[in-house]
UniProtKB/TrEMBL annotation:
<protein>
    <submittedName>
        <fullName>Octopine transport system permease protein OccQ</fullName>
    </submittedName>
</protein>
<comment type="similarity">
    <text>Belongs to the binding-protein-dependent transport system permease family. HisMQ subfamily.</text>
</comment>
<keyword id="KW-0813">Transport</keyword>
<dbReference type="InterPro" id="IPR000515">
    <property type="entry name" value="MetI-like"/>
</dbReference>
<feature type="transmembrane region" description="Helical">
    <location>
        <begin position="72"/>
        <end position="92"/>
    </location>
</feature>
<keyword id="KW-0472">Membrane</keyword>
<feature type="transmembrane region" description="Helical">
    <location>
        <begin position="20"/>
        <end position="46"/>
    </location>
</feature>
<dbReference type="GO" id="GO:0043190">
    <property type="term" value="C:ATP-binding cassette (ABC) transporter complex"/>
</dbReference>
<dbReference type="InterPro" id="IPR051613">
    <property type="entry name" value="ABC_transp_permease_HisMQ"/>
</dbReference>
<dbReference type="InterPro" id="IPR035906">
    <property type="entry name" value="MetI-like_sf"/>
</dbReference>
<dbReference type="InterPro" id="IPR010065">
    <property type="entry name" value="AA_ABC_transptr_permease_3TM"/>
</dbReference>
<dbReference type="GO" id="GO:0022857">
    <property type="term" value="F:transmembrane transporter activity"/>
</dbReference>
<feature type="transmembrane region" description="Helical">
    <location>
        <begin position="204"/>
        <end position="225"/>
    </location>
</feature>
<feature type="transmembrane region" description="Helical">
    <location>
        <begin position="98"/>
        <end position="117"/>
    </location>
</feature>
<keyword id="KW-1003">Cell membrane</keyword>
<feature type="domain" description="ABC transmembrane type-1">
    <location>
        <begin position="22"/>
        <end position="222"/>
    </location>
</feature>
<keyword id="KW-1133">Transmembrane helix</keyword>
């Protein structure tokens, strides 16, 4: 009974705060995920390029951001951008430390990290395409752009969806780390509530349930998307 009062929507309940924090988690995860898709597309294009410098740059990118701890990347982005903003502000007479927007820097850090993983997902999807179809399209006289738009992209999306769904789960978990730079997302709100009420188990249990709910609903969405993308494709018996 005490738990439901604590997580209720009454004057002493924390239900609205927890739901608002869950919305913030979803928001920063979506922004970071979309940014990761863009970084991943650029990284995959660079790795598949015929130019050695682009392939080398993409290899360094994926190696660094898959090897460095995510928390460290968030710290580097936040304090690095904050130092830059503080330096620029001091030129105009401002004094003291000027912090970068926690939402923006956190989402960008998540995007860069997830983009390194999505680069590999997109490369795997392209390499899974039947070589015969690409060769037939080239023999038919398709330009590279037309080949990409009509043959490569539609099929690569089909193969990429399961891997992209896994990266989304990773992004959701990474969003909890952004609390270290002051963003009040689900994990941070649970910590605040636990400290204020001295009921840590109730708040962290609720946070875990909300994370699982978000994961479950998004999993259903990705399954529906994959099913739609695979329409008309014959699967092996």
């Amino acid at each position: 009974m005490q738990y439901f009062q604590l997580m209720g929507f009454g004057p002493d309940g924390w239900g609205r705060d927890m739901l608002a924090a869950a919305g913030m988690t979803i928001g920063v995860s979506i922004v970071g995920f979309v940014a990761g898709v863009l970084f991943g597309c650029c990284g995959a294009a660079a790795k598949l390029s015929r130019f050695g410098s682009l392939r080398w740059t993409a290899e360094v990118y994926t190696t660094v951001f898959r090897g460095v701890p995510d928390l460290l990347v968030i710290y580097l982005f936040y304090f690095g951008s904050s130092s830059l903003i503080t330096s620029v502000a001091s030129m105009f007479g401002a004094q003291g430390f000027v912090g970068a927007p926690a939402f923006l820097t956190g989402a960008l850090a998540i995007g860069v990290v997830s983009g390194a993983y999505q680069t590999q997902v997109f490369i795997g999807a392209v390499e899974a395409l039947p070589r015969g179809e690409i060769e037939a399209a080239r023999a038919y006289g398709m330009s590279s752009l037309l080949l990409f738009r009509r043959v490569v992209l539609p099929q690569a999306i089909r193969f990429a969806i399961p891997g992209v769904a896994n990266v989304w789960q990773l992004v959701l978990k990474e969003s909890a780390l952004i609390s270290v730079v002051g963003l009040i997302e689900l994990m941070r709100q649970a910590q605040i509530g636990a400290g204020s009420t001295r009921q840590p188990f109730s708040f962290f249990l609720t946070a875990a349930a909300l994370y699982l709910l978000i994961t479950f609903v998004s999993g259903i969405g990705f399954q529906a998307l994959e099913k739609r993308a695979m329409r008309g494709v014959r699967r092996p018996a």
